[in-house]
Amino acid sequence: MNILAFTDPHFEERINKKLIAKAKDADIVVCAGDFTNFGRNFDKIIKDFDKFKKPTLIVPGNHEEGEDFNVLKGNKKVKFLHKKSIVIGDYLFFGYGYGGFSEKYKDLEALIPKLKKEAKGKKVIFVTHPPIYGTTTDYIDWAGHVGNKSALKLIEEIKPILVICGHIEENFGQIDNIDKTIIINPG
Q1: The Cα angle at residue 82 between residues 78 and 85, in degrees rounded to 5
Q2: Closest-CA residue to 93 (of 103, 79, 104, 106)
């Protein structure tokens, strides 16, 4: 599966035409949050996601609000992935968004047992806005490791094949792993 993944573009008005062009080669598009700049032009940007002409999965970042996502009702291509799973072929995509500033999310940890059942026989891809604690995706020189320990717990228990995360813009392009799980902050 060819995935076009990005995070934290903070689009001011529209989605970049270069990004739309890159989607031609992808099977699926994944955004790990902060696609707006504090929610400005939310509806325009959501409409631009349709220009990918591919299944598009998005988790919210700390710049998006929950009620804004009501515009996705009935959208066939763009799917809101927060606290949800979507199966595409033999892949199970699970998403968790918002935040990025908390060390733990009890609601995320509560979802792990259910996700374990859903994941049986599937290749799991975890899409999350908060970076993973203790990896290169969460390390900031002046603050140390600032990532999410609940996301780390999910990785240790579910063992996804891939994690796409964001939030720490200083770490765009970082790739790390925990056992066989590849973790990326695609930027």
Answers
A1: 80
A2: 79
d(CA 88, CA 38) in angstroms, rounded, equals 31
pLDDT in tens, 150-163: 999 999 999 999 99
Phi, psi of 181 (to 5 degrees): -85, 125
Residue 10 zone, left/alpha/beta (φ > 0; ψ -120 to 50; rest): left
- Alpha carbons 61 and 179: distance in angstroms, whole number: 27
Report helix, strand or coil for 176.
strand
Q: Given its phi and psi angles, is residue 11 left (phi above 0), alpha (psi -120 to 50 degrees) or beta? A: beta
Q: Kindly provide the b/e burial profile for residues 52-87, where b requires at least 16 CB atoms within 10 angstroms of the residue's own CB.
A: bebbbbbbbbbbbeeeebeeeeeeeebbbbbbebbe
User: Which DSSP category does 130 fall into?
Assistant: S
Quick: pLDDT tens for 67-118.
788 888 888 899 999 999 999 999 999 999 998 788 999 999 999 999 999 9
End-to-end CA distance of the chain: 20
**Torsion over CA: 136, 37, 99, 103 (sign):** positive
- By CB atoms closer than 10 A (0-12, 13-18, 19+), residue 138 is buried
Q: How far apart are CA 120 and CA 130, in angstroms?
A: 25
